[in-house]
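JOB MANIFEST
job_type = single_chain_structure
chain_count = 1
residues = 262
[input]
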Amino acid sequence: MKINQIIDQLEALAPRHLQESYDNAGLIVGDAKAECTGCLISLDVTEEIIEEAIKKGCNLVVAHHPIIFGGLKQLVGANYVQRTVIKAIKNNVAIYAIHTNLDNVLHGVNAMIGEKLGVGELTILRPKNPDNQDIGAGVVGYLAQAMEERDFLAFLKKEMQTGCIRHTAFLGQPIKKVALCGGSGSFLLKDAIKAGADVFITGDFKYHEFFDAEGKILIADIGHFESEQFTIPLIYRYLLEKFPTFALHFTETNTNPIKYFS
């Protein structure tokens, strides 16, 4: 099988034109016409990920986050990005990123978080186009049963396997309607409030942005990596359905750069 056959399926799931303007989804390194010996699926691309791909006989890494966002002016191994790209090129490992285009489809990253948490009746939180409500940022939906705030955060911490949750003050109201956005989603806070959500789950909230909840919603910041880590099984499950006999691998490398001291 050729690498471009896998790319075609990934872009059927999340077309590249749906990525944000700042993004760099698509084939970043490698020859799309090359035979694919195996595919390693990860959240990030690092030197360790490329090394893992080599050890597993994979000449394709499919990651959520692009290793390159802006232009590279040199390739001299000055930082981890350059070293990773050099290692990939030297070892004929292709790198493909499926990033904000996978964030922006209803059946993408956020649907996987909803599935983990049992949030149903999902709709897009901020549609890109009024004529297509299935494309856009974030999702909102409902728990099968309402939960008390403390119980919900304990459930959230366990299901999303996070070391801690940063949150705003409890409001003394049950959690039923849930808004969520994988990665950095603070830009959607007003949309979550407007949608009448009881809680907004995402990552990367800044200190002053927590004030913007203004007692209208519970913000639950679970971390960037933690909110997106289940993108790996999402991609794996999708590709396995398309290529049931092909060599697909979950990464065994935890690329989260943030650690929690407890």
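[summary]
DSSP finds ten helices and eleven strands in the chain.
The first strand starts at residue 26 and ends at 29.
exit_status = 0
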